[in-house]
Request: fold
Amino acid sequence: MTAGHAEQQGSDADPAVADADPTFTQIDCSTVIADVWLLLDNECDPGARSRLQGHLDRCPSCLEQYGIEKDLKALISRKCGGDHAPEGLRDRLTLEIRKTVIVAEQRFSDGG
Reply:
C-alpha cells in the first residue's frame, strides 16, 4: 500500500455476490495486498479471485502494488526457474521428514 492511501472498505462488494455476508464481499487494501500472491499463484477460489480482481480494477494503488509483485514473480521465475537442487538433496529431505514423522508418532503413542 502506498503512503497516504486510505484503506477502502465497503465500496468493493462484488455485485455477483451482493446478497452474501458483507464480511466476505467487502475487502480493504491491506487484505488485497496480503492476498496478491494467492492471486498470482492461482491459489484462491473463484469468489476470492473475483473480489480481489474487482478491488484491483477500482484501486490504482493496489493495482500498482499487484504489478510490482507480478514483475517480481516473473523475475524470480526467470532467474531461478532453471536451477536444480544438488544431487541427493531430495533423498536427504525425504529421510529427514520420515524421521520427524516417526519421532512425532512415537511421542504421540507414548502420550507425550
In short: Residues 60-80 form the longest helix (21 residues). Helices lie at 22-25, 29-40, 46-58, 60-80, 89-109.
